[in-house]
Amino acid sequence: MTAQIIDGNALSKQLRTEVATRAQALQAQGITPGLAVVLVGDNPASQVYVRNKVKACEDSGLHSVLEKYEASMTEADLLARVEALNNDPAIHGILVQLPLPAHIDAQKVIEAISPAKDVDGFHIASAGALMTGMPGFWPCTPYGCMKMLESIGYDLRGKHAVVIGRSNIVGKPMALMLLQKNATVTICHSGTKDLKAMTLQADVIVAAVGKRNVLTADMVKPGAVVLDVGMNRNDEGKLCGDVDFDGVKQVASHITPVPGGVGPMTITMLLVNTLEAAERASK
Ligand code: NAP
């Protein structure tokens, strides 16, 4: 078997067209969905991420503001900026790019964002909403994974999903989303004794670890769907995921590549959340 590739670029393009159409409908009511991206310091990776996010907004007809500050910015000043953005009617979504400099308490800053504008879905109120099935904002990366499963018409009811990784931004919310769609969910982590025994039972595997070749072909049940969230570098310095793509694609029914898989979906879901925030604010 050679797995069908779930193309994150193609799916993103389709979803971003839908975002642009919905943004136009809001604009007809005089509302332009707006995202504020706040960057503190000069982390090179963060600079690339924020640039991509701002460009994606512009391409889809969303208004975006990039606020850049020196690494020496105080926590109090950052909290004051967040509060000003909370009160700015032109801004519907606020994203503070992580990591923040060590002297700033990132959790405190995230909790300062109004839950109504928490388009990253990292606020405790958003996490609670996801856990209880209430309306809120879902973290973009696992939300993108759910859209990828939806795009292949995959019915999770009664399926066994194994999530490798339990971070607050990917693994845990991923598990809750799969659970909400009636999958039976197993969460694995660095303390899991026999990862292969777990993954071999899985109909769906989401790898969100940050280590190359965490998932190899011998660990995958034939026909399983494999989503690769990981972002790593191989020996040649090229971007790769957590999954041994060449091996696993011979066993899986569907697989996401790296690059061109989950990565583009993450930014797309940020646009979706920002649009959703603007639509909710307009009602
Ligand atoms: P993280 O916070 O470092 O979490 C990694 C998780 O993997 C932890 O729960 C850890 O377990 C677990 N783990 C580590 N080694 C393991 C092993 N050998 N077997 C099983 N589990 C193991 O990372 P993250 O923020 O969730 O990100 C995960 C990866 O996704 C990274 O490569 C990151 O760059 C990537 N990512 C990609 C996107 C995207 O847009 N494509 C977005 C976000 C993240 P413990 O909890 O026990 O330590």
Structure in words:
- The protein is an alpha/beta fold and 283 residues long.
- The protein contains 10 helices and 11 strands.
- The chain has helices at 8-27, 44-59, 75-86, 106-112, 124-132, 140-151, 171-180, 195-199, 245-248, 262-282, and strands at 4-5, 34-40, 63-69, 93-96, 160-164, 184-188, 204-207, 225-228, 232-233, 239-240, 254-255.
- Strands 1-11-8-7-5-6 form a 6-stranded parallel sheet. It has a 3-stranded parallel sheet with strand order 3-2-4, sandwiched between helices. Strands 9-10 form a two-stranded antiparallel sheet.
- Helix 7 (171-180) links the parallel strand 5 (160-164) and strand 6.
- Helix 2 crosses helix 10 (262-282).
- The protein is globular.
Extended strand count: 11
What integer value in Å does the Rg equal? 19 Å
Hetero compounds: NADP nicotinamide-adenine-dinucleotide phosphate
User: In whole angstroms, how far apart are the ends?
Assistant: 49 Å
Q: Considering DSSP H and I runs of 4 or more, what fraction of the residues is helical? A: 40-55%
Tell me what portion of residues adopts beta-strand conformation.
15-25%
Please list the strands of the largest sheet in the order they lie side by side.
1-11-8-7-5-6
Shape verdict: globular
Low-confidence stretches: none
Largest sheet: 6 strands, parallel
Instruction: List SSEs in N-to-C order.
Output: EHEHEHEHHHEHEHEEEEHEH
Mean model confidence by pLDDT: 97
Number of helices: 10
Structural class: alpha/beta
